[in-house]
Write a structure and sequence with these properties.
binds 1-O-pyrophosphono-5-O-phosphono-alpha-D-ribofuranose; Rossmann fold; 13 strands; 208 residues; globular; alpha/beta; binds uracil; nine-stranded mixed sheet; single chain
Length: 208
């Protein structure tokens, strides 16, 4: 069964509290999504493979390390977009592949609308970026797409998860580790995470 990691970092907790606040405006909200994503990426990438290289310092030649595998960042449109920039700055050699899904408001099932993945996988490790793991339908569907593409190692990174979403994702994809800022209490009767932060896409893009 996949592991689900909830960040215990004080900075993540601090920033999450501002993110949740209903009075936080889109500009600040986007800054926080970016900053929290960088911190979560630090936790989610601890097991990336590295290779040993020689590096010339101004004084001597010494042993150093570089990332060994090509990383793919997979933001789920649209709310996942806000998580890309910060993570990409940390790993500028990554490729970014977008997947477009929205949740049908009536059925809560994901509907795919954008996928331009090339025929064969071009990366060794995929990190799916989506701030909200609610029912888990969107994350599971994204990972289905990546597995059909041929991706072998996949991680999910989110900001807030519901226990229901974690369970669904773990059952659908037991090989995919889950890294989130916080695991909240539950889903409400219209599929929103409680206490949550509302609609992550609307709050980033000012479209509420
Ligand atoms: C949100 C969120 C996830 C999905 C999570 O996207 O960004 O993709 O809901 O819900 P689930 O776990 O129940 O599938 P939304 O459908 O609101 O689309 P948007 O990002 O375009 O606003
Ligand atoms: N998508 C969101 O943006 N927020 C939720 O609480 C659930 C799904």
């Amino acid at each position: 069964m996949a592991n689900a990691y909830e960040s215990q970092h004080p900075l993540v907790k601090h920033k999450l509290t501002i993110l949740r606040n209903k009075d936080t405006k889109p500009k600040k909200f986007r800054e926080l999504v970016r900053e929290i994503s960088i911190m979560l990426a630090y936790e989610a990438t601890q097991d990336l493979a590295i290779e040993t290289v020689e590096v010339e310092t101004p004084l001597v030649s010494t042993e150093g390390h570089v990332l060994h595998e090509k990383i793919g960042l997979i933001p789920v449109l649209r709310a996942g977009l806000g998580m890309v920039e910060g993570v990409w700055e940390m790993m500028p050699g990554s490729e970014v592949w977008h997947i477009g899904l929205f949740r049908d408001e009536r059925t809560l099932k994901p509907v795919e609308y954008y996928n331009k993945l090339p025929i064969a996988p071009t990366v060794k490790v995929c990190i799916v970026l989506d701030p909200m793991l609610a029912t888990g339908g969107s994350a599971s569907a994204t990972i289905d797409i990546l597995k059909k593409w041929g991706a072998k190692r996949i991680k999910f990174m989110g900001i807030i998860a519901a226990p229901e979403g974690i369970k669904t994702l773990q059952e659908a994809h037991p090989d995919v580790d889950i890294y989130v800022g916080v695991i909240d209490d539950k889903l409400n009767n219209v599929g929103y995470i409680v206490p949550g932060l509302g609609d992550a896409g609307d709050r980033q893009f000012g479209t509420a």
